[in-house]
Amino acid sequence: MTTPDRLTIRRPDDWHVHLRDGAMLEAVAIHTARQFARAIVMPNLVPPVTSAEAAAAYRRRILAVLPDGCDFTPLMTCYLTDATDPAALAAGFADGSFTAAKLYPAKATTNSAFGVTDITRLTPVFERMAKIGMPLLIHGEVTDPAVDIFDREAVFVDTVLIPLRVRVPGLKIVLEHITTAEAAAYVAQAEAGIAATVTPHHLLINRNAIFNGGLRPDAYCLPVAKRESHRQALRRAVASDSDRFFLGTDTAPHPRHAKEAECCAAGVFCAPFALEIYADIFDDLGALDRFEGFASLNGPRFYGLSPNEGTVTLERAPTIIPDSVGAAVGGVKPFRAGETIGWRMVEP
Ligand code: DOR
Ligand code: ZN
């Protein structure tokens, strides 16, 4: 099969980003805004974004660090806690303050200390969300320390997600950053109303990368990368004709001192060349014809939004990923730093 040297697709969106706040926000937001028209912004700040007012203020801080005329729309999310009020959440969705709500099981990941301790207690919140069509975005890992870290996603699907869908039918769910064959198979085959984001790193690395010649902080994120057979299942899922898989980078920058620490922070900073890296992956899969669906169409369709107007063009050209970006925050190392990838975005 011949592959084109130029690829023009509808403007894409990133359905899962961590933009942070303060100096880090200032350093990283432009990378997401360069490539994507919209992004679902995760609410795990300290303190987390739990109210419409906090989301509006955060949205203003994001827009304030972007250059004038930058055509980028942050889509805000509400961090669910044990105390989330269904009426306040619904009001925030109705007035556009929130596009979705994020469920972090307590202590599952970075800044999830305020997360939900018992998902069954949130049933009234989920019922309200189902009624108004508000998507629930899930970090799908159980937190029971007795469950092996490599099994936490698959166990979550069986013991939490499937029962939740029985309890609250009609709830629209995005299973975020899936890493396992079990999650991919469930999302592909389950009753409608479920979709999944897939990160570039989980399509490119398996768990060996975390231990390659020593501990590799830059390959450590949550959920952790799994064994090769799982990576292959994710690659098959995004290249398949299912419209339930879409682009969500989970770009999660941390300062170097937090990555290169006795206790390394979880997160892969993949924002700077995310779209180009995904194009490389789809090229490698011989699935460039599926790329637009994954990057620009499946996400909006699931969220009930229109695809973006306008297009972006990528061209086949060697692109070197820099070693570091964001000098003002001491430099953050991007995913695939120093490597050469095969695509670049043609600037309009
Ligand atoms: O690796 C991760 N980093 N996974 C998450 O779920 C959170 C994120 C972060 O905020 O750093
Ligand atoms: Zn995330």
Describe the structure.
There is one protein chain. The chain is α/β, with parallel strands linked by helices and 348 residues long. The chain has a single domain, classed as TIM Barrel (Alpha-Beta Barrel), CATH 3.20.20. The protein is built from 11 helices and 11 strands. The protein has an 8-stranded parallel sheet. It has a 3-stranded antiparallel sheet with strand order 1-10-11, covered by helices on one side. Helix 3 (86-94) links the parallel strand 4 and strand 5. Helix 10 (274-284) crosses helix 11 (288-303). The longest helix has 16 residues, at 152-167. The protein is globular and about 50 Å long. The model has no long low-confidence stretch (mean pLDDT 96). Bound molecules: (4S)-2,6-dioxohexahydropyrimidine-4-carboxylic acid and zinc ion (ZN). (4S)-2,6-dioxohexahydropyrimidine-4-carboxylic acid is lined by residues 18, 44, 109-110, 139, 221-222, 252, 266-267. Zinc ion is lined by residues 16, 18, 42, 250, 252.
